[in-house]
Amino acid sequence: MVRIDGVARESRAQRAGILPGDVLVSINGHPVADVLDYRFYETERELALSLRRGETAYTVELAKPQYASLGLEFASYLMDEQRACRNKCVFCFIDQLPKGMRETLYFKDDDDRLSFLFGNYITLTNIDDREVERILQMHISPINVSVHTMAPDLRCKMMNNRFAGEALRHLYRLAEGGIQLNCQIVLCPGLNDGPALEYTLEKLCGFGESLQSVACVPVGLTRYREGLYPLIPFDRETARVALEIIERYGEQCRASRGSRTVYASDELYILAGRELPPVEFYEDFPQIENGVGMLRDLEEGFRWALEDLEETEPSALAVCRHVTIPTGECGFAFLNNMLDVLREKCHNIKIDMVPVHNDFFGGTVNVTGLLTGQDICNQLAGRELGDVVLLAGNMLRAGEDVFLDDMTLPELSERLDCPAVRVGGSGEDLLAAILGREQPRGQGHDPYEKGSWEHTT
Q1: Which of 134, 149, 239, 259 could form a disulfide with 272 if both were Cys (CB 3.0 to 4.6 A apart)?
Q2: 317-329 tens-digit pLDDT
Q3: 3-state class of 115 per DSSP?
């Protein structure tokens, strides 16, 4: 049973007399416990809803087009409490955060419903066989899974959970049931790379068509690791060896099933000193939210937007502008080279790319999405910033203009004495922001949307 928080105006639910505060008990005799139940059973054309208003039970029967919404609103997407992670992974980034940050940053979610709703990755250690059967019955697909390793004992070690290896049975069951799987592997040198990575990819590729994609990303390590497992970062050689394994399995998948399927993140290529693959390598960018092909996607979008503007509105490129763009050290060289095409075409536009060293996390984390306001402020201080400072949207909290260290965008602007603007994640957005035009998809769209500037570890 779930409490109805609101009823949309002119909706079918409102016309049927359902009120906020009523309790939804079941749909067509199926108990409703959470969002998955509601979303699944709501799709039918003919519905019999059992409800309660105070102590009075009543029933509403209605007909509607299949998949049309009833118009019921609930206090949260999940309709009950979010499920917290039960693991203590040796590489967990949340465990490497300093004390004193906002409370929401320390919550570790591991909720299969969030995987369905928002694409979150789950470990499968937080669900049981009954929940797996519900996923299969409702054919909730795809499911995004943090695998890390297919070796049961190693998985228990890496997750500090004696049930983590046993939980792999859920992965096999989902694959057998035809659920599409997107898998993530956080690579830790000396633990799950090398032969262990080969074993994992061999097992995952054995899932056949159920395996939709695999992303391999390097572990992110901060300076706040006292008392934690002694992990080491990737260097050029270990990154190179890991890439060779990943690309070999990607080629095997491409030959056998027509799709590469297995990918490494952009960060791993940069760590290995390797050039990023061409844009067509990434096919339909199935793992862009994990930083796989994100930079190439941005470059492609920027190039197309520039060519389109040259053809349709060449006067837009005549603007005189000076912009400053702080970015993580990882993607700096690529992004700076990408902007050379605009610099060469428009000599009246000055673009200063500034690689910001991540002092907040100790300098070992170098992606754009984990920069803080204080590091940006300190390292831009004393510079001639020009007309505006442009910031990648994934530096800021989704839906809010707040950095990881709780500095706000207005505070940064005030301290720099220069307006700071949140930029959407596409190449088109970036070009528009540089030229001082309205961003096509709206200023600072959701940073988790496809095409954010760079991966957030």
Answers
A1: 239
A2: 999 999 999 999 9
A3: helix
